[in-house]
Amino acid sequence: MIRFYNTLSGKTEEFKPLRPGQVGLYTCGPTVYDYPHIGNYRAYIFEDILKRFLIFSGFKMTHVMNITDVDDKTIKGANVLGLSLNDYTKKYIEAFFEDLKVLRILPADYYPRATEHIEDMVRMVRGLLDKGYAYLKDGSVYFSLIRFPDYGKLSKINKEELKAGARVESDEYEKESVYDFVLWKKARPGEPCWETELGPGRPGWHIECSAMSTRYLGPTFDIHCGGIDNIFPHHENEIAQSEAYYGQKFVNYWLHCHHLVVDGEKMSKSKGNFYTLRDLLARKIDPVDLRYFLLSTHYRKMLNFTFDNLEQAKASRQRIIDFVYVLQHQPLPETSQTESASALVASALSNFQDSLADDLNISAALAALFEFIREINSRLARNELSRQAADQVLTAIYQMDKVLAVLPEKKEEELPAEILKKIEQREQARREKNFALADSIRQELLQQGIVLEDTREGVRWKKIN
RNA sequence: GGCGCGGUACCCAAGCGGCUAAGGGAGAGGUCUGCAAAACCUCGAUUCGUCGGUUCGAGUCCGACCCGCGCCUCCA
Question: Is residue A4 part of a domain?
Fold first, then answer.
């Protein structure tokens, strides 16, 4: 049984998709006005683990992630550079897809862009007007909260208390009530706009997700994800728009991931603790180490990014990598003592799966993996593992890695001929018991980020950063 | 003011009423090794922010308090 914590109910619930074996998933994507920061990627990696786990569990996924390519920030950015909206966002959209690849985030089935779904949004806004949930004022359309009594059910926000809130900024647009939010913004000079039956203008932010999610997944779908900061107002507004328009439940399970902070504080450009993936790559951080770091803490817990914590994650991941390497390369006896290994493999896999099934308890899942590694290593040290058993273990590890995606690519990395020559020179020196030379070569290669390990089966090298 | 999250060993982090409080990192000792590295073995919290309460039994439930953090119409 798979269980998830549902923000809507505030409880952990059994997961039952609308259609057996199939899951519709919508995840809030980037606003492409700049490079995403590593906090954004925490959310996307959480969603990736969720999706990979559901696939691992046998579900067929339909995953939609929106790309917000028209909003105040993209418009402003484009205007500053004197570019068209499309020319401006293109660069960031491409960068986003590159980042997803290096972080091993599985691609969504659809990446709808707001600018390509104006019609869907207009249809919905039109419908909301017709049903009396929205009103037109001064060329813009607003959603009226007093017409939607369920408002606040996701964020547990009380409408009456909203006005007592810390910040009630008056929007530049005219609303009947401060809580109302904009569905359609009338055209203004210097801003891109679309000629529609609502009049010239552009969509508000919230309507985009309502229109595009239901366009691809239907009026009611299974899972909607995002960061906790999206609960209010974004997701609350999505519910209001969608349920008012379709007259049925919008989303069954709302899953939200907590924030990433840096040195205990929220990332902000002014504090100088703001990192994009590119910043870290420039510092020679292995993106898969970052992936491991971001996934290794439960998604509903605040995660503190520090370089020290990243180092710890790297070391943990290296333990898994070394384990796999040894199993693949160490000559092992053929004698089949596989039975006891089969039991270990089975229990490791089931512990791993059961842990993730419990609201993605990644810590427990990783503990299952590491316990398994220690147990098998122990047998290896006592020379009690056969080739067949090792292969079974490897199969299990790679299965778990279908969810984690932290193991090195299968293809063997090549070293430059020059380095290989050094390694051979050192081997020669060792044979001649010229350990001073051997050690100096090892030291030299270490400077270049290559670690040499002498094993019974010969020298092994690995790269470090 | 409202809503919410967290405080478990040097660091990260599970456990959410009942076997000796998972797992990873760092550290200490040992085995192996020319030396390293990796790996294995051993050690490491009489104790879970504090104080009360409930219970046969509490990190785990209840209350109060102390610290840190987030959100309250830009935000993953």
Answer: no
Name the residue with the least CA to C1' distance from nucleotide B25: A312
Q: What is the ipTM of this complex?
A: 0.95
Distance (Å) from CA A351 to C1' B15?
15
DSSP A420: H
Domain of A354, CATH number, reads 1.10.730.10
Same domain, yes or no, for A55 and A157? yes
> What is the dihedral angle through the alpha carbons of A146, A150, A152, A154, rounded to the nearest 10 degrees?
-160
Q: Are residues A389 and A436 in the same domain?
A: no
Q: Which residues, including other chains, have CB under 8 Å from residue A56's CB and lie 6 or more apart?
A: A353, A356, A399, A402, A403
Nearest nucleotide to A260, CA against C1' atoms: B76
Nucleotides of B under 7 A from a protein CB: 1-6, 11-15, 22-26, 33-41, 68-76
**A365, A456: one domain:** no
A146 and A103 part of one domain: yes
Distance CA A174, CA A181 (A): 10
Report if residue A271 sits inside a domain: no
Whether A9 maps to a domain, the answer reads no
Q: In which element (H, E) is residue A305 found?
A: strand A303-305
A162 shares a domain with A34: yes
Question: In Å, what is the separation between the CA of A355 and the C1' of B17?
Answer: 21
Q: Are A140 and A186 in contact (CB under 8 A)?
A: yes
Enter the tokens of residue A336.
């089949």
CA of A229 to C1' of B71 (A): 7
Are residues A201 and A314 located together in one domain of the fold?
no
Residues A53 and A158 in one domain: yes
Q: How far is the CA of A331 from the C1' of B34 (A)?
A: 23
Q: How far is the CA of A161 from the C1' of B1 (A)?
A: 9
Look at chain A and report how many structural domains it folds into: 3
Per-residue model confidence as pLDDT tens for chain A (465 residues): 999 999 998 889 999 999 999 999 999 999 999 999 999 999 999 999 999 999 999 999 999 999 999 999 999 999 999 999 999 999 999 999 999 999 999 999 999 999 999 999 999 999 999 999 999 988 999 999 888 988 888 988 876 655 443 344 444 456 777 778 999 999 999 899 999 999 999 999 999 999 999 999 999 999 999 999 899 889 999 999 999 999 999 999 999 999 999 988 888 777 778 899 999 999 999 999 999 999 999 999 999 999 999 999 999 999 999 999 999 988 888 875 556 789 999 999 999 999 999 999 999 999 999 999 999 999 999 989 999 999 999 999 999 999 999 999 866 667 889 999 999 999 999 999 999 999 999 999 998 888 999 988 888 888 876
